[in-house]
Fold this sequence. Notes:
Layout: H1 2-14, H2 33-44, H3 57-69, H4 75-86, H5 97-104, H6 112-118, H7 128-131, E1 134-137, E2 151-153, E3 158-161, E4 172-175, H8 184-187, E5 194-195, E6 201-203, H9 205-208, H10 216-220, E7 225-235, E8 238-244, H11 255-258, E9 263-269, E10 272-278, E11 293-302, E12 305-315, E13 317-319, E14 333-336, E15 345-351, E16 358-366, H12 370-376, E17 387-395
Parallel strand pairs: 3-4
Antiparallel strand pairs: 1-2, 5-6, 7-8, 9-10, 10-15, 11-12, 11-16, 13-14, 16-17
Helix pairs in contact: 3-4
The chain binds heme C (HEC) (5 copies).
One heme C binds near residues 218 and 282.
Amino acid sequence: MRFIWLLAIVGLNLFAATAVQVGDKYKDSGKCNACHSHIVKQWENSWHAKSHYGNDEYFQKTIDYVARKDNRKSLNTIKIECATCHNPRIAVTSTSAEYEAIAALNLDKDSAATKALQSDTIAEGINCVVCHNIDQIHDELPASKRGINRVTWMKSGTMIGPYPDAKSPYHQVQQRPFMDSNPNQLCFVCHANDTSEEGHRFIDMQSEFKSNGKACVDCHMGPQKGGVASTLPIDNGKARKRLIREHGFVGAHTEGMWQNALKVDARKSGAMLEVVLSNPQPHALPSGFGSREILIEAQYTSGGKVIKNEALSLTSHYLSKRGKPTIPHLAVKTTQNISIPAQGAKVFSLPMASGADGVSIVVSYRLVNDEIRELLELKDPIWSKKMVIKKLNLKL
Length: 396
Ligand code: HEC
Ligand code: HEC
Ligand code: HEC
Ligand code: HEC
Ligand code: HEC
């Protein structure tokens, strides 16, 4: 018995991320277009497709900021760390002290790390061969091992999917439960927890998850519906009918998704206006990812005229090891966490206006709060756009 335990422990320690080369025939979504063009189109608009240094301003500037503040590590080393979840088909999964020494002298142009980061295999972020080329997910590993460190890749050319009876002339197929009966297991490979350079855990989606009977894919890929998985005529000259889902992975960047994402109630309580936010979803909202913000804005009126505006910003703040405001990836501490827990509620109070006979309340969401937008000098208007969750009018 003890021997088996020992074997298990040795096994765990020996497991390290192994990159498996994706063959040229499968390496980008363009290679799937001929037969899965509807899926490619949906995925292209998703933020999984933008998960790359060159395609997401917020991601890029966060990496640059970490590299500037953390003088022990080079920019490329930080990029490789983040690739664990953001670009998991990268060919190099860690760097050594020797590499850092060479990088510090700018002599790393021909290194394997530099080449891996420049490869077009990873330029598509989380693409088809990230999710559909996984052989095993190692949930026996510690919770901190995520992304590339939690999976074993299938050999190139075998696509993992939901159907037990699929056949394709272009690639091999195999079925796995994480594509079908247990899809949360796939999403939790990356959407589970994340830790700063200082070891501070700033997001904990998996342990906070409280099932309401729905899976991630039910809400973020939509319900299963009739359609085709492939447009190739394989069924008596026609495309085969299948139950499928959308590949949009719509989420926080899509305004429409925020409508009624939280339930909002308001009531007068003495000299204060109380706003109750309840969250029917199975994870906290905001999910906890660093900078996200909920805004409550109240406009008081008297006889139809506006007499006062009040606003409340609900967001998390982070402190660096020097005790200064910083971004989540460099934090040693979260000073405030306002997320509404899964299937929970929180009450927030705003001052009333004397003489008001009515109030209109707008609750909205922003991807990045003022503090972090300024620290990183984010330019794209999407980061500060207010996405409306709910509007409410109340007679006082
Ligand atoms: C453990 C997996 C994992 C690692 C490692 C990781 N991330 Fe992420 N990251 C995620 C997930 C999952 C999301 C989406 C979170 C959400 O929206 O709730 C995300 C989102 C982000 C976002 C927000 C992007 C946007 O468009 O709003 C930024 C910025 C970011 N990560 C930066 C980084 C940086 C910089 C690193 C490396 C220092 C890093 N991440 C490492 C999993 C990871
Ligand atoms: C983030 C992970 C992820 C990515 C990226 C992804 N898929 Fe999927 N895909 C899934 C999941 C999960 C299912 C199973 C959906 C279900 O429950 O039926 C699926 C299902 C499919 C199916 C079966 C038909 C269907 O729609 O259910 C095909 C074919 C497919 N994906 C192709 C692709 C292609 C091509 C790409 C790239 C353009 C891609 N996928 C990107 C997760 C992913
Ligand atoms: C020449 C056409 C063709 C090309 C190109 C192609 N596939 Fe397919 N694929 C198919 C057919 C046909 C099926 C089976 C459809 C069915 O049974 O309903 C299939 C099925 C799948 C499935 C589901 C497998 C299962 O067992 O559930 C996945 C996932 C998939 N393909 C991914 C991809 C990816 C990723 C690419 C690009 C790298 C790609 N395919 C390129 C024709 C193609
Ligand atoms: C390989 C790691 C990985 C896997 C597996 C993964 N994701 Fe993601 N996901 C990410 C990262 C990283 C981001 C942030 C990308 C960015 O904003 O640049 C993200 C973003 C998202 C978003 C936010 C989109 C938005 O607009 O804010 C949703 C929703 C999402 N993923 C759902 C899923 C679902 C559902 C699954 C399982 C079927 C899944 N993801 C599997 C890494 C992953
Ligand atoms: C019952 C529906 C539902 C289920 C199930 C669900 N979500 Fe969500 N999720 C939402 C809603 C609603 C939002 C807020 C609007 C939006 O971002 O789509 C959200 C937001 C998100 C975001 C962006 C949050 C932010 O503030 O950055 C991510 C990432 C995400 N979900 C991932 C997941 C993952 C991974 C799972 C499974 C472990 C999951 N969701 C299960 C409904 C759901």
